[in-house]
């Protein structure tokens, strides 16, 4: 499969991108936080399916949870590398879709490449180097 087709295979689903957005920009790393924090109102069965798919695709890892504890999802480097894609989609949305402008998207746009690199480094520190 050619590269764009392969990327669309993983990222072409609406919910997959929104889950990644919420993990990356909302720092929601637990199932309940992703479910209740979804502005779009994702159903629990859809969220569970997308989390499994994102883990299988290598964009997220699912931490092992002790009995009675919640599993925490963390970004992989491949997941962190989706940030520029999400930013490009957000910028397109700001330019071409009517609606409320999200402050976070404006902040990312105005910060430019340096801010994006800083945000990706922060994600690496929180997700790849996390021990708890």
Automatic annotation (TrEMBL):
Pfam families to which the protein is assigned, alphabetical: HxlR
MF terms (GO), sorted A to Z: DNA binding
InterPro entries in the record: HTH_HxlR, WH-like_DNA-bd_sf, WH_DNA-bd_sf
Gene3D superfamilies in the cross-refs: Winged helix-like DNA-binding domain superfamily/Winged helix DNA-binding domain
SUPFAM superfamilies on file: Winged helix' DNA-binding domain (SSF46785)
All residue ranges annotated as the HTH hxlR-type domain in the record: 2-101
Highest taxon in the source lineage: Bacteria
Keywords: DNA-binding, Transcription, Transcription regulation
Name of this protein: HTH hxlR-type domain-containing protein
